[in-house]
Write a structure and sequence with these properties.
Blueprint (H helix, E strand, L loop, with lengths): L3 E14 L4 E16 L4 E5 L6 H8 L7 E6 L2 E2 L9 H6 E4 L13 H11 L8 H11 L16 H13 L5 E5 L7 H18 L2 E6 L2 H7 L2 E6 L2 E7 L3 H4 L3 H8 L40 H5 L5 E4 L2 E3 L6
Parallel strand pairs: 3-8, 3-9, 6-7, 7-8
Antiparallel strand pairs: 1-2, 1-4, 4-5, 9-10, 10-12, 11-12
Helix pairs in contact: 5-6
Length: 320
Amino acid sequence: MPLLDINNVVMHFPVRGGMLNRVTGHVHAVNGVSLSIDHGQIMGVVGESGCGKSTLGKVVIRLLQPTSGSIRYEGTEITPLSHNDMMPYRRKMQIIFQDPYSSLNPRQTVRAMLKEAILFHNVVDKSEVEDYIIALAKKVGLRSDAVSKYPHEFSGGQRQRIGIARALCVKPEFIVADEPVSALDVSIQAQVLNLMSDLKKDFGLTMLFISHDLKVIEHFCDRVVVMYLGHAVEQLSCDDLHNRARHPYTKALLGANPIDDPSDRRPLHVLTGDVPSPFNPPPGCPFQSRCPVVSDRCRREMPPLEVKEDGHTVACWKVE
């Protein structure tokens, strides 16, 4: 049984306007995404900005209530649960936010923000809280005296370590990492990724790792879901990403990656055109306006997400 099973999840945000503030349309942020995450697995989600990656992460842990679809945690349907009924799952599922500058309370010390969560969820006895906080700070690479400081006294990389400590302090089973290194310098990114890899092994974590950087996804994740305009267009093992990627959008993302070998002078492949508006998505395949192999069928019909082999799924009429 997978730890998390997501089936046909949809998230549409209403858009209001006019004198009566009526709903005039919807932003189609997530459109029928399905995936399963096994215990101990790191599932990557990749795509351009605005494709629905962060929205999917927030829906999965019920920070947002989905418009429709099913979310099962260890076989239990959690989609219809009330705020009180979700409390046991809040401890099991945590999130690391993208921006380490705005995701921390500037009026609380590190000790105060960690202690608040630890006491609320009764993670350890009150007599053990201080020692637990110090041990956790050291675990994420912070000095013991750092717990007495405020967020503005830390660098960006240190703040993201605090965010990781906050997610870990309640001993979760599943973590959504929402682009946790995108706001950091490249040298700091490697440190934070290595830290998260070590913590994953030490704590036996399962993760949904969101990023727009395929290099990071390849290095850190076991499987990857490629999203475009709210749709999951391909899912495959990260080991097979270069050799077996079959969707034109996945190939375009791989082709746009910087080449490691400086003597290799192959031109970068850059997609033409802009991503369509999620407020008014095109008919048929969501990628049809930018696809280099588009056909008339692509403009009329939405391709289903089909299993090709070994759990590799792809949604494209041109893939046989």
